Amino acid sequence: MLYSSAGPDQSVLEDLTKAVFVSDMKVLITDFNYPDTQLEQSLFRNAGIECLVGNCRTEEDVIAASEGCFGLLVQYAAVGAKVFTARPEIRICSRYGAGTDTIDSAAAQHYGVWVANSPDYGIGEVATHALSMTLALLRHLKAFDCDVRQGKWDPVATGEIGRVGNMTLGILGLGRIGKRMAHIGRNCFRRVIACDPYIIDGDLPAFVERASLGELFRTSDAISIHVPLTEETRGMVNASLLRLMKPRSVLVNTSRGAVVNVDDLLAALDAGQLDGAGLDVLPVEPPEPGSALLAHPRILFSPHAAFYSVESHPEVRRKAAQNLIDWAQQGRPTYVVIAGAERSDTVKAKSL
Catalytic residue positions? Predict the structure, then answer.
């Protein structure tokens, strides 16, 4: 379903603002893959907000679990027009993490629902993970480890290895994580280039050269992907781009799995176009047992773990919950992705 991008539908909002806000402060954690939700629940409890916990995946699940809730804290559950139509009391959705692709942004904007995220947690973790994968691929660490375990002790058996200090690092997407990747990668690589049409020249770090998409893939010895998943980026790294890459180059994706067409990636690896790939994210997680991806010897995997550290794990949970608390107390979340309708009520949750 298509919606106008001009802003919330005023006739819809006029009806909602009369009926929705907020006598009982209640939120739903739609789903989670953490050991528990005690941290989030304590934050909500201290703010005078009741917290329900669901195990939702579909919009129907969310509708069934969210009666009377003004906000949703979302991990992987689908949230869109069905939810906003059936539950007009929902005025804000906050998502664990930076990406908001499980929330239908056009529908949220149409219904005047705020969308918030946690964009600045785990930046260093993801960047260092991406650099670690990149260097491991360029230095053949996975193949060396395998050889040694099988009794082979030969530093040249895995093929030619170039000097990283002579190479070009290419970064696709120069947001917070992409900038951090450029910063830590510049000491390893001779040159850092980046493609991001949404970054103005004044926000381009002095040590990063701007490149077009084609130039990035033609010039780089290693490409690290740091874009959000949108209709523009879904499947954008495909055969037409991969065939531009230099022999012995590598590709690393720590952003979203669906940005890369994995069938085209496998074909490029099999054709010798790429020397290796590092994948922290996949279109389907976890991958199906016996998949061609898992069988490929030149793919280095991690289980969507780039974000993780003992510090970042609670950080993302606090920030995602705080968006809902801030909306309840101030009418606006901390990290705005989509600005929703202004609150017309005066009810506030208790101060922390």
Answer: 256, 285, 304
